[in-house]
Structures are given as C-alpha cells and as structure tokens.
Write a structure and sequence with these properties.
It comes from Geodermatophilus amargosae. The protein is an alpha/beta fold. 33% of the residues lie in helices and 26% in strands. The longest helix is centred in the middle third of the chain and has 16 residues. Bound molecules: adenosine-5'-triphosphate (ATP).
C-alpha cells in the first residue's frame, strides 16, 4: 500500500504537487492520470525518495522509503527506462543492482525470465530497443520481489505487442496481491489495464475512483427499452428529464438515475425490457474532468474541435 498524506512539493514558485492525499491499495492496478505538468512524475519520485516533500509525507508499506532497511524489497520502480549504463549487459546491470541491495544473484535469472529477456541477457544495454529497455527496467524493479510496483509511462513508445505484454504483466502482478501504480497518457490502454484511477491536475487530486464509476458518472445517460416507450418518454420529459428516442422502443435519458426511471415506470405500470446506464469512454470522461486543468494546449487551426494538450 502507498499512503500519500498532504503531499506538497514546490520547485521555485511552482507547486508541482499541492496538498495531495490519496491511498493506493494492493491487489489492483491503479492508473495515475493527469495532463502534462500535473505532478505525476514528481509524486512518483517522492514515493521512492528521489525527491523530498516540501511538506506532508509518503508511506510505502507503512514506512517512509528511507526508513526501510531494504527499500528495493518493498518498492520497485520504473521511472526512466534508459537509466541503465549503456556499456553494461542486461545481466551485469541487474547483478550490480542485486549486489548493492543485498539480493541473491539467483534472483537475476528469475527476473530476466519473468520479463522474457533471456535471449538478450548478455547483450549491451546501449543497443537495446525501447521495448527491451522497458523490459529491463521492469526486471530491475522486480529484483527485490517488492509488494509495491511503480511505473512511470511504461508503454510510451512501445509497439502493440509490447503494450499487450505490459498490460498482462501488470494485471498479473496485481493478481498476486501487489500494489501496482502506473502513469500513462494513453487512455485506451488505461481503460484496459487499470481497475482504479487517481487523477491529478495542477498538483491537486481531481478524482480517486474505480474505472466503473469514472466512466458511468461521466455519461449520465441511461438507455431504456420498452414497448410503451412513448408513454414513458412523456412522463419523464414532464418530470424534467432530457429524453431522445433513437428507435421506436428505445429511449436515451439524461437527468435521471436508473432507479428514478424504474420507479417512474413501475408507478405507471410500464414494462421495461432493458435499463442500462451508458458508459462514456475513459478518454471522454477524462477530458471532461481535466479540461480546466490543462496547462499546455495546442492552438486549434481548423476551428472545428477544441485543441488538446501538447507539450
Ligand atoms: N526538478 C524540477 N525543477 C523544477 N520544476 C520541476 C522539476 N520537476 C518538475 N517540475 C515542475 O513541476 C510540475 C510537475 O511536473 P511533473 O513532471 O511532475 O508532471 P507530470 O504530471 O509528470 O507531467 P508529464 O505528464 O508531462 O510527464 C511542472 O510544472 C514541472 O515543470
């Protein structure tokens, strides 16, 4: 578990993280989302002791990172895939890390196999593709068999095969009961990987929600099928709901919950054959939530759609 309590980090005059309080729980993949400059990397660096909080604190499995006698056994992090020395082979890099952290050398072979790098184990890291470097970074993060795993943009620049591999791998780690905290800007990927979301904007917490809640609440729409659709539409519209009829027996309703609609139908003895909250895509839900907090926005040249973040 990661407990972030009133974390603030100020660089010069910039509040990179601003009074952030959130708990990242084990047994699930938690996606860490936010526009460019929202403070995700700063938060992750603080969790592993690479940045000191200006105020507040972060506890990993109950203690500050620096207070753990063997921190690599508690938390493994992939913050920069290109961090390994280019002249070393994958195995010498991992052995050096193992030795300095009191981890048996036999563990190196285990993590190399876990990430599928056996064939490249004796090649120099400088010649690795981005996908291989990401795998090596993950192997390093897993050396201490940690309960908590942090990954900053692990799928950046990977091909679809690599992305799919990381997705399955992270879900497997969470399935073993580990705490998996992963940042990404790829919403379609997060929608497939994460169970829970922590969303920040300008250093502050915007949402700490399950994927299900995030996408259901953003749409606010309920789809209803009924042989008495016209009568139901009249009743709901009369009560202030926005109702559109897409097929003769199908209504899209905004402004009423599923329960409200079921109660209205029951009271009027109207048969419902379908009652479904419509989920927004994660991308739509995310963009709606973070729009006020986007700091870097491209100029919109075609004047047909709002420009999105670019930095
Ligand atoms: N070492 C530093 N010195 C000065 N300012 C910094 C430093 N690190 C981060 N910042 C600033 O803190 C803010 C948060 O940056 P951070 O990299 O944590 O955001 P992020 O959410 O990871 O962004 P991105 O999605 O672009 O990677 C930004 O305004 C950034 O310019």
């Amino acid at each position: 578990m990661i407990e972030i309590r009133n974390l603030t980090k100020v660089y010069g005059g910039t509040h990179a993280v601003d009074d952030l309080t959130v708990t990242v729980r084990p047994g699930r993949v938690t996606g860490f989302l936010g526009p460019n400059g929202a403070g995700k990397s700063t938060t992750m660096r603080t969790i592993v002791g690479l940045d000191r909080p200006t105020s507040g604190e972060v506890l990993v499995t109950g203690r500050r990172y620096a207070d753990h006698p063997a921190p690599m056994r508690e938390v493994g992090a992939l913050l920069d895939a290109k961090a390994a020395h280019p002249g070393r082979t994958a195995v010498t890099h991992l052995r050096a890390l193992a030795v300095t952290n009191g981890i048996p050398r036999s563990r190196v072979d285990e993590v190399v196999a876990m990430v599928g790098l056996q064939e490249a184990a004796d090649r120099r890291v400088g010649g690795f593709s981005l996908g291989m470097a990401q795998r090596l970074g993950i192997a390093a993060a897993l050396l201490g068999d940690p309960e908590v795993v942090l990954l900053d943009e692990p799928v950046n620049g990977l091909d679809p095969d690599g992305i799919r591999w990381i997705r399955g791998f992270l879900r497997g780690l969470a399935g073993e009961g580990r705490t998996v905290f992963v940042s990404s800007h790829l919403m379609s990927e997060m929608a497939l990987t994460a169970d829970h979301l922590v969303i920040v904007g300008r250093g502050r917490l915007l949402a700490d929600v399950s994927m299900e809640e995030m996408t259901a609440s953003a749409s606010g729409q309920v789809r209803v099928r009924s042989p008495q659709a016209q009568e139901l539409a009249r009743l709901l519209a009369g009560a202030g709901a926005a109702v559109t009829r897409s097929e003769p027996d199908v209504l899209s309703i905004t402004g009423r919950t599923s329960t409200d609609i079921a109660e209205t139908a029951l009271a009027a003895r109207i048969l419902l054959t379908e009652l479904t909250p419509v989920h927004a895509s994660l991308e739509d839900a995310y963009l709606a939530l973070t729009a006020p907090d986007v700091q870097y926005r491209a100029i919109d040249h075609d004047h047909t759609a709002p420009g999105r973040a670019a930095a």
